[in-house]
Amino acid sequence: MSNIYQYVRHPRSAELRQNAPVKTNDLRRVNHKNPLVRFNARFGLRITLVVGTMWAAYLFTILALFALPSAIKQGTYFVVVWLSSSFLQLVLLPIIIVGQNIQANAADKRSEDTYKDAEAVLKEAEEIQKHLLAQDEVISSIMTRLEKLTGQAESSASTD
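Above: the chain's sequence. Below: its structure in C-alpha cell form.
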C-alpha cells in the first residue's frame, strides 16, 4: 500500500531558510544606479545619524539658550517666538530622531522574534510531518495484515 498522504512543502519555507528578517541597519545600505541619488541618501543618512543623538539635543539646547536673553528683553511675544521657533524646533528634532531610532530597534527586535517564531513553527511542522509519515507506515502495515487475514478468512470460509 502506498503512502496515505503526499506532503508538499510550501514554497515560503524555502525562502524562510534562505533569508533573515530585514532590519533597519540593512536598509542603510543605499545601492542605487544613480550616483547623485546614492550620494544624497548617504549624506542625508549621515546627517540624520549625527543630529539624531542626545548630544545634538544638548548642543542645540545650549545654542537656543544663547538667544533667550535677547528674546526676554524684547517682550513676551518674542519669548513665545523664541520658544516655538528656536528652542522647540532645535531641541525636539534630535530627541524625536532618538525616539524613532529606539522604535526602529524595537521593530527590529520584534521582526527577529517573529522570524524565530516562524522558524520554530516550521521545525515543529516538519516533526509533525515525520510523525505522520511514521503513522502512515504503521497504518499501511496494519492494513496489509488485515487484508491478508480477511483474505485467509474468506478462503477458509469458502472451502468449508
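The chain is about 80% helix and 0% strand.
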